[in-house]
Amino acid sequence: MIRIALAGNPNCGKTTLFNELTGSSQYVGNWPGVTVDKKDGKWKGNKEVIIQDLPGIYSLSPYSLEEKVARNYLVNERPDAILNIVDGTNLERNLYLTTQLAETGIPVVVAVNMTDILRKNGRMINIQKLGEKLGCEVVEISALLGEGCQEAAKKAVDLANRHEEIHVPAVFMGSVEHAIAHIEEIISDRTEPRFQRWYAIKLFERDSDAAAALSLSAEKKEQIESHIRDAEKEMDDDAESIIINQRYAYISEIMEERGVKVEEKKERTISDKIDRILTNRILALPIFFAIITLMYYVSVTTLGGWMTDWTNDVFFGEIVNDAATSFMESIEAPEWLSGLVVDGIIGGVGTVLGFVPQILLIFFFMSLLEDSGYMARVAFIMDRIFRKFGLSGKSFIPMIIGMGCSVPAIMSARTIENIRDRRMTILLCSFIPCSAKAVIISMVTATFFPDSVLMAPSMYFLAIAVIVLGGIALKKTRLFAGDPAPFIMELPAYHVPSLKGALLHMWERARAFIIKAGTIIFVICVIVWFFSSFGAGFEMVEDVEDSLLASFGHMISFIFAPLGLGDWKGAVAVISAEMAKESAIGTLAVLNGVSEGAEDALVMAGIAGMFTPIAAFSYMILNLFDPPCIVAISTIWREMGSRKWAVFAITFQMILGYTMALVAYNLGNWLVYGAPFGMGQAVSIALCLAALYFILRPMPKEKDIEILKNMETEK
Known about the structure:
alpha/beta, 9 strands, Rossmann fold, 64% helix, Helix Hairpins, 3 domains
């Protein structure tokens, strides 16, 4: 089995190439020991070749977890070849990683991507000349159009099979090269010859991981350090900066070589012209809101709504339900088994799966926006806003990811260097409606606000508003005070998204949702059915009000009564949602379909009878802002790096979710539905005033911030 690793900068088209090479033969897991996604797939051209998609990185210096994962894999696992994807529209920046990959001793094929955009902009790269200067094979590709992709993979496989001696480009010069040569001699007995250069350069940079891997003696460490100090003295700079500067000098020399690159035309590119509108200081936000509104309108209200109605009413409500009922009758199944299958499994899991069409459409449109290059602009736009309130655009990246699932969103906060900003991002990013929360939003919207176009997208905008306002309030505490982390991001050129890539990306995300529905939600629905079907003596009951679950629900319903959720069924659904958010729908379906069948119209009628519209709105708010599912909670626990911080985060989310639902129900009931002013309304107004105080109060004094920084340094 041959392993080809795809390596490249973020937004270079690596994922698009991976999809083009592997098609549907992909499998996603985690890298050993870490929770960073690992994507493998079999090459369509040869099933004996495994394509491995490394995290998008800028260098092999381990500044972030993704860079550490990629580096450890390349150095320790050593794939047979590397297919290095570089963005042809930003060649200089991308070649920085190329020089590092060439030093690993692994065969490298460079694939210059986005050649279609280069041609449109009147640019050209002499592939042959570039290959001569880099000392490796270079090919042109357009991952979006599928041009040259299979050829690039074939060249990587051929190179892996030839087992030729690796040519390492002469990047460094003078005293630096002299020092590296001496370090290679010192470590010659500690590693294979083909890896000596890599380790020598890393040791020159004073890379602690490389030093630990070689287990060098104190004497050898001192010899190496003396050579480094000599180079630093001569160059009048620190070792790491010297390496960086000479790499870029080498790249500049390549780009200045006659015939390597023909400069672009002087007029503005198409991307520049589009950006004048989409990133306009005034128009950017209204356009973004319009795009998100349209996405939810199509996915939830119109096309997605029609597809979900058919799936629930016809497919699960009639076809599957009737078939299951007939089968149970034909085998003369006992009442409990028939109830478990029809009411528990089909009624619960089927109702959740009925919303899959809406989820598929949301993921599809999100994939199109990401693939086109627009979502990178959204991060740039939000950075301008977030920075005014003490946040960074880096914090918005996890929030974009969170539209799929909160777990990878929380983990992606690792790229934020500032520990206070990282913790605050983890605290807030799960508020963005994920796929599971989108199911609840869809159900409430379809049942209680069917004519409202803005209800579903307003939850997304409300989440962003709460994140911004919550960030402002948190930044004004000593725990999170300080300047936001700098945000630097390369904006890829706009291009027409790949339909094939969008569909694959959509299915990849939706599959995770379906698997969860088939496992966690299946178990929850079975448990809910059991406790709603049996009484204290473990005998089947005809009325769900006599069940064990009803007894439990009545015990806890007082907690949620101030939110308009005094019905014990709603209270139980709130608790089940903490296992998996979408399980709330399955729970309500089971509880309302126990004696009436699982047909969608009956289930929705039952749910509509449980809540008033404002109570349903409160329920939606509670699920949006309270702690996420149990898997995401465990991720928060791990990523916070401290039990104290994890407890603080979960407690903060619990209080915020409950408070917002309380305010939404009581003030909405008073202002919109004409309920009399009472204690609930008074408490809600007091909570709003308290929130305004935390948002508008002055920042902590510099003295307090310095004290906190010193405490963190000491830890």
